[in-house]
Amino acid sequence: MTNKFKLLILDFDGTVGDSRRLITDTMLQTIDALGLETRTREQCARMIGLPLARCFTEMIPMTEEMGEKCAATYREFFKQNNRPGAVTLFPGVADTLQRLHNRHIHLSFASSRSHASLAAYVNDLGLSPFISYLIGADDVHRPKPEAEPVEVTLRHFGIAPNDALVVGDTKFDILMGHNAGTHTCGVSYGNGSREELEKAGAEHIIDTFTALSDL
Fold it and tell me: What does the pLDDT read at residue 67?
């Protein structure tokens, strides 16, 4: 079988890992603890995919300094809330990654969470045999939706943008791929809406992770 893509650059939260409840619970807890303007769970979910401090500064009017305080508070609550089983894989993820790996397609992550947090999930969820490269928000100067996470990954593998596919659940992932000149695929089951993915210019939109095999 001839592969259309040599490299898949995957988002983690909302694409591979079902972490929405954990993240939004922790965001709401942070907002409450700091006495900030209240926001709904849905409003919090729409921020997933941005670097942590920006999740708060873009959702609630505040200074960058306050955004960093929100991020620090969030991290402390997250340590308490991130119990075993709090994040699970979406249906079909492990089997699909195994099939793609067997077809000698490079698989990597580009996430807005920290490298250490991302690596821990890759290990704990049994994805290490398939995923050969990780980029966290702290690995780059300009995280998603900027192109740098993808550009760094392309250089690592020595692969041209046209041979790579960025896969994610939010507009931030799609914009990151577009900014780097790669192909893009949105997933409809995550934190972003199909309308948002289409507006961002996703070339493909799939309803299950297993559909990646058909691309």
Answer: 97
| Per-residue pLDDT tens digits for 175-200 | 999 999 999 999 999 999 999 999 99
In terms of domains, do 208 and 168 share one?
yes
Give the three-class secondary structure for 47. Answer: coil
Same domain for 122 and 204, yes or no, is yes
Reported as a single tens digit per residue, the pLDDT across 126-176 is 999 999 999 999 999 999 999 999 999 999 999 999 999 999 999 999 999
CA gap 142, 78 in Å, rounded: 24
CATH of the domain at 51: 1.10.150
Q: Is 101 exposed, middle or buried (0-12, 13-18, 19+ CB in 10 A)?
A: middle
Considering the domain architecture, whether residues 159 and 100 belong to the same structural domain is answered as yes
CB 81 within 8 A of CB 88: no
Cα(138)–Cα(111) distance, integer angstroms: 10
Number of domains in the chain: 2
> Which structural domain, as residue segments, surrounds residue 175?
7-16+90-213
Cis peptide before 149 (omega within 30 of 0): no
Q: Is residue 185 part of a domain?
A: yes
